[in-house]
Amino acid sequence: MFQPIAAFPAGRAQALSESTMPLSFEEMAEPNEAAGDSFTSMIGKAIEDIEKPKELEDQLTTDLLAGKNVDTHEIMIAGAQGDLMLQMASTVVSKVANAYQTLINMQV
């Protein structure tokens, strides 16, 4: 009377049982990338992320002065984001320096 409903079409269950996503530790382990290169690229990306809102603010301001239709709120938001990112970066650097100084002053 009732027929069971197949959860997966034929052949699809086999594909779902196999892992297609890399494990978290597999993503980190790249033989071509040394630890120093990884740290350097991470810091470089962080600096680029900090500069993006300021560059956007500068571009929007230039567009406004050139007579293009630019919302002044966008300029203010980009400026506030840039200031916030710079303040956060400064705070992180201070905290890291403070933690380093604390570790150096520890007696072993």
Report on the structure:
The chain has a domain at 37-104. Helix 3 packs antiparallel against helix 4. It has 4 helices and no strands. The protein is mainly alpha-helical and 108 residues long. Helix content is 69%, strand content 0%.
List keywords for this structure.
69% helix; elongated; mainly alpha; 4 helices; 108 residues; 0% strand
Average pLDDT reading: 78
Give the oligomeric state of the chains in this entry, treating copies of one chain as homo and distinct chains as hetero.
Answer: single chain
Question: Whole-number radius of gyration?
Answer: 25 Å
Q: What structural category do the secondary elements indicate?
A: mainly alpha
The separation of the N and C termini measures 77 Å
- Main sheet summary: none
Please trace the helix and strand order, writing H or E for each element.
HHHH
Strand content: under 5%
Short description:
This protein has 108 residues and is an all-alpha fold.
